[in-house]
Amino acid sequence: MRLGLDLSSGPTYMQLSKRLKQRHRERQDMNHGSLAARTNVHAEFDDYAEQYTTLLADPLRDRFANNDFFHRRKFMLIREFFRRSGLNAKQSSWVDIGCGQGELLRLGMAEFGSSTGCDVSPAMLRGCEGLTVLRQEQDDVLPFADGFADFATAVCVYHHVPLSKRAALTREAARVLKPGGTFCIIEHNPMNPVTRTVVKRSPVDRDALLLGIRETRRLLEEQRFRIVWERYFLFLPELLYRRIGFAERGLARVPFGGQYAVFARL
Ligand SMILES: C[S@@+](CC[C@H](N)C(=O)[O-])C[C@H]1O[C@@H](n2cnc3c(N)ncnc32)[C@H](O)[C@@H]1O
C-alpha cells in the first residue's frame, strides 16, 4: 500500500508503527488491558508527538484533504457559531482543552481576546511555540481557575479519554467556564464508514473509543450544559468543498459527516 510518506530520514512508518505497538502492549499489560483502567494517557501522546503528522497519514485521509483543511473547517464552524449567536470573540477568552500541537489555537488566536491551550502530553505541547499553553497534570483536572474562560473547545480529545474520566473532564470544562459560557466538543463521527476505517488503522488511534453524538450530548447535559447548536461536517473532500462548499450547509443535520460539532451553553 502506498502511504505517500517521506521515508528518506528517520524511522520508517513501519518501524514507528511496530515500536508504538510494542509500547502499547507494555502499557496494556500495566493496565491489565483495560481502556477504562488506563491512567497514563499523556505518555501515549508523548510517544506520537515527534512524528505526529507522519503518523496521521492515511491514503483515504490524504485523498480527502490536506491536514490544514481539517483544522480550518473546524475554525470556520466556531466562527459561524459566534456570528450566529451574536457573540464577540474579541471580547472572549478561549481555552482549548487537549490542544495537541496547537494548530486550532494558531488559526484562531488573532480573533479572540485571549487564547490558552492545555494538554496532558508535554511532548505535544512542545509543538506549541508562540502560543500560551499549560501542562495538564491529570486527565480530569484542568489547569485553570473557576470561571476562567468564556469559551472552551475539546477537539478530537474525548475519544482518547477513558470512559471513566469523560464525565469528570466535562465537569471540569463547566467549572472553568464563566456563567453563560460555551463548550464546543468536536469528534469523529462513528456513523461515517470512512472515519471508522481511518481511525481503525491509525497508529495514534490505537486506544481510541469513538463516541457518537448522543453520548456527547449526554455528557454535556449531565453537567448542566444546554445544547445550542449542532453540526455534522466534512462531507465533501477539500477540492469539492472549494467549489460547492455551500452544499454542506444543507447536509449539516444528516448524521453521516466525517465529524460532528456540538456547542452547549451553561
Ligand atoms: C488527536 S489529538 C488532538 C489534538 C488537537 N485538539 C487537534 O485537534 O489537533 C488528542 C490530544 O488530546 C490530548 N488528551 C488526551 N486525553 C486528554 C485529557 N484527558 N485532557 C486533555 N488532553 C487530553 C492528547 O495528549 C492529544 O494531544
Task: Give the arrangement of secondary structure elements.
Blueprint: H1 13-30, H2 41-49, H3 52-56, H4 59-64, H5 67-85, E1 93-97, H6 103-108, E2 114-119, H7 122-125, E3 133-135, E4 149-155, H8 163-176, E5 177-188, H9 193-201, H10 213-222, E6 226-233, H11 238-244, H12 247-251, E7 259-265
Parallel strand pairs: 1-2, 1-4, 2-3, 4-5
Antiparallel strand pairs: 5-7, 6-7
S-adenosylmethionine binds next to helix 2 and helix 6.
Characterise this structure.
With 266 residues, the protein is of the alpha/beta class. The protein has one domain (13-265): Vaccinia Virus protein VP39 (Rossmann fold), CATH 3.40.50.150. The protein is built from 12 helices and 7 strands. Strand 1 (93-97), helix 6 and strand 2 form a beta-alpha-beta unit. Bound molecules: S-adenosylmethionine. Residues 41, 45, 97-100, 103-104, 119-121, 124, 136, 139, 155-157, 160-161, 169 line the site of S-adenosylmethionine.
